[in-house]
Amino acid sequence: MNTLLTRPLRSALALLALLATMLLAGTALAQGKLEKIKVASAALKGNLEGDSAERDVFVYLPPGYDKNDGKRYPVIYFLHGYGVGAQVYVERVLALPGSADKAMADGKQAAILVLPDAFSKYGGSMYSNSATVGDWETFIGKELVSYVDSHYRTLAKRESRGLSGHSMGGYGTMRIGMVHPEMFGALYAMSACCLLNTAPTQQAVEQQLERMKAPPQPNEPVFAKAMLAQAAAWAPNPQNPPDFFDFPFVNGEAQPLVQGKWTANSPLINVDQHVPALKQYKAIAIDVGDKDNLNITNKQLEVALTRLGVAHSFELYEGDHGNRIGQRFVDKLLPFFAANLSAK
User: Most buried residue, 29, 68, 258, 322, by CB count within 10 Å?
Assistant: First the structure.
């Protein structure tokens, strides 16, 4: 190839390189902002576990938030799962802020994301209401919403707020969603746990009591304290120090009232009493992996909502309890709220 032919080619390549650089620069500018703040809660103050009533909260502000002082945004609240804090979901599970940046740059509706930390003495609050763990229903459903609306440019109305979560957070989504329909306009529960709860067996209680006698283990399994977290959330007893909760068996004898408290905190049991609340939502979505052990109870929730005439969507996808949560957050959850939350 002679010089006369290579010069135009080189010029064209240089122009393409310049355009690529400009495009990359433009993409780099379309970035959101991730903040870590603390929110004080009156509803959690004085909880008998001694957990802080000043909670860490991660807030994602979408691309353009800092440039347009007049624009207001819908808000998506996301509740994390048991055994870890919100930071693990932010960094590892959902890969924020990059995943949200990409989703919103692809043309999906821009929104503020809020992820409160519900890690507790025993690994998770269950987003429940008890003297032992505090009133998480009020903190999430009212106090946190009020704080976010007063500190960020939100669209401060239920039609522009979504509540969502994974595993324990999916349970919290259904639990809080059933009691606070005046605060949220759409729900998305991912692989919700604890939809039908049975009190631990005598053997399980005795094994847990033995573990409590032993020194803390550095490599203790994540779910080793799950029974304690559930007891603190669902069977509180302010008159039973030092743990301030009851077990369903005491000295080998069954405690029917305590056992019933596990069952009473099952969305599958009490969903029938919350039909008017659930029918207020514009949209409700439930999903679960086909290899997730929780798929049976999630299917049962889908059947219950159908029986009760509550509009919803349900998806059984190929996956287990956690292997596709980040992907589905981008591909399913964010588009769901983009379609069902008001941006005006």
Answer: 258
